[in-house]
Amino acid sequence: MRFGFPRWTRKQDPSARAAKERLQVLLAHERAGGPGPDVFPELQRDILAVIKRHMKIDDDAVDIQMERGEGQSSLEINIELPAARG
Amino acid sequence: MEQDRKAGKVIVVTSGKGGVGKTTSAAAIGAALAQRGHKTVVIDFDVGLRNLDMIMGVERRVVFDFINVIQGDAKLSQALIRDKRIETLSVLPTSQTRDKDALTKEGVESVLSELRESFDYIICDSPAGIERGAQLAMHFADEAVVVTNPEVSSVRDSDRVLGLLQAKTDRAEKGEAVKAQVLLTRHDQARIDTGEMMTVEDVLEILAVPLLGIVPESKAVLRASNLGMPVVLDEPSAASRAYEAAAARLDGEDLEVRLESDRPRGFMQRLFGRTA
Ligand SMILES: Nc1ncnc2c1ncn2[C@@H]1O[C@H](COP(=O)(O)OP(=O)(O)O)[C@@H](O)[C@H]1O
Ligand SMILES: [Mg+2]
């Protein structure tokens, strides 16, 4: 049996704080308009086109990863180049 | 046992009614199957109401989604998000901005057949309802997990979904059956004891399909969703044990269905003996 304390003295479950933080980060990005639904496909097409002007790469050689963060987000773009011959 | 390693199994998690625990179950069963060593992907079919990414804790990493792949704007490999905790687990998020009509039967079929080549299990998290979105989620399924709460409207909707599974799916059209099992969730023994809630036997008698498992109402589910962890990856609880057992059964293990409890076996239980 636990004795009841007034609601305000009870500690909040730490998982609820995690939920709040995750939501704040996500919603901040969503409300800011974030990158729209077509940004990534377009970005990918443009990157492919630019690289292709200079070297031969496959259409699926571009890999885009993103990590939305609190202060900043990072965009990681990997381009797989064909193996060197010889 | 699955003989052909190249033909992954498609399992839809469906229910008709909303809020019964489909997404929770899809994430937990997917993670449990992956923990058993199977390459597993969980797909969000709830277009416009993306939630699976949050429940699985990958929401910050979504770049491309299911709709981008269907529309040819991204390769499937680019849209799949690999879980950082379990190597064999991936998520295919859906779009939050497109409308439901962006899903087409042909698109869904081609994505699923590509996934069958590299995954052992493909878990489809269905939207609520029995309309187009829910029908697309179940259309190419080999098996179905019908998530049901012991409550009238949920049981009724489950019955309608069971009807659709045997009438409107690809397998049904080919004269084959979709193997359907009921997963009873949010089971609350205290409310069953007071007679407020139907018993497991009541529900099974009405639906007349096999029982995959019983997931008790558990605080662990809310905690796990707060943390962005499928409940089986969080600390052990009655819910995590129930989902692990359900996944083992889906995976072909012959386990008896037990009623798990978060409470230590107290004297009431010792007095009245074991439940289930
Ligand atoms: N076994 C359970 N115990 C407690 N809460 C649960 C359980 N299963 C689901 N819930 C809660 O019910 C709500 C709806 O669950 P969700 O999985 O999103 O359902 P659906 O996908 O069917 O709409 C969520 O708040 C979830 O945390
Ligand atoms: Mg859902």
From TrEMBL, chain A:
GO terms for biological process: cell division; regulation of division septum assembly. It comes from the Bacteria. HAMAP family: MinE (MF_00262). This is Cell division topological specificity factor. Keywords: Cell cycle, Cell division. Gene3D superfamilies: Cell division topological specificity factor MinE. Coiled coil: none annotated. Belongs to the MinE family. Transmembrane segments: none annotated. InterPro entries: MinE, MinE_sf. Prevents the cell division inhibition by proteins MinC and MinD at internal division sites while permitting inhibition at polar sites. This ensures cell division at the proper site by restricting the formation of a division septum at the midpoint of the long axis of the cell.
UniProtKB/TrEMBL annotation, chain B:
It comes from the Bacteria. One of its GO terms (cellular component) is cytoplasmic side of plasma membrane. ATPase required for the correct placement of the division site. Cell division inhibitors MinC and MinD act in concert to form an inhibitor capable of blocking formation of the polar Z ring septums. Rapidly oscillates between the poles of the cell to destabilize FtsZ filaments that have formed before they mature into polar Z rings. The gene is minD_1. Belongs to the ParA family. MinD subfamily. Pfam families: CbiA. InterPro entries: CobQ/CobB/MinD/ParA_Nub-bd_dom, MinD, MinD_FleN, P-loop_NTPase, ParA/MinD_ATPase. Keywords: ATP-binding, Cell cycle, Cell division, Nucleotide-binding, Septation. Interacts with MinC and FtsZ. ATP binds at residues 17-24. This is Septum site-determining protein MinD. The lineage of its organism: Bacteria, Pseudomonadati, Pseudomonadota, Alphaproteobacteria, Rhodobacterales. Gene3D superfamilies: P-loop containing nucleotide triphosphate hydrolases.
